[in-house]
Amino acid sequence: MNIPLMNLADAYADYRGALMEELNAQIDECRFIGGTAVARFEAAWAAYCGLPWAAGCSNGTDALVLALEALGIGAGDEVFLPANSFIATAEAVCRVSAKPVFCDVEEATGLMDAAYFAEAVKKSGKPGAVIPVHLYGQMADIEAIVQIAAENGLKVIEDAAQAHGARRNGLGPGQISDAATFSFYPGKNLGAWGDAGAVVSRHEELLCKIKMIRDHGREKGGKYLHLILGHNHRMDAIQATVLCHKLLYLDAWAEKRRGLAQMYGEVLADIEGIARPITAAGSEPVWYVYTITAERRDELAAYLKDRGIATGIYYPLPLHRQPAFRDRGAMPFLPVTEDLAGKILSLPFWPEMTQDMVRAVGMAMREFYG
Question: Which structural domains are found in the chain, ordered by start?
């Protein structure tokens, strides 16, 4: 049995026919950038997030750049973020000429360690913002991080690229911070048919500024009047149509993910050499991926590959050890992050994955560890 890491094609049967009708109507309208399709998705996504405002954009990386720029983060500002994340989080900081300050993570969850962040801020020369990353479908301790940020005058931007619909103590991304950003990369829990992203916020003025920056500094209706310098970070109307339709299924897909995560927990129980993912107190994860820690991780991955079972590593080389940041003085010793980088392993996982597949993965892992 060949089992991929994820299979996007399995979900198409749920929505393909109806969505193609909507896309044909979009093609007939001949409005491919912005317009009513994007406005409709922005309203739907804001409502889903329990917030009044959303701004669609070109991708998740640009969403972070837009939020940082609109909040006034720039040259010399220090932005705190976990080292266990995709490079886009730190890349966005550098794109606004700010300095990434890498923080260690919790051993149990792989999420940003609020206590480490609190100590790091005390040593900062010019603290500007913090970007907690909600990883693997689970939110970081956003209440603690927001409190530390408020005590030190930092802006808070949540990187929720892997947390569509997640909650922690009843709070979703963006509900107590300055803003939260999302990626709709095709493999995400809510994925476009290409690149797309969004920023959500409680603050109307901030979102209005983001909408100007994403569209060459223009206000709505002012085609050749540019009030500020901006970028071309707009969302394509076709992606907005895809996302608006797929949003109808997001909660049902999340429920399937929870069921699979529970089953994985059962089939992997008592295997010596691995640790199953831990759900933090008050957390309601949406299980973007199912990530374990494993002794002899690379050997296990090779063993599973030989048996047709794919795996992934998120992430094998922490951000503070990436060559791209070597000349930025950003290579501290982060023991938990570095230990996890050699152990984390993501197993096959997508909503339509069958129970037989989960059992097959579990059986192969039991065979490996003997």
Answer: 8-103+111-248 (3.40.640.10), 250-369 (3.90.1150.10)
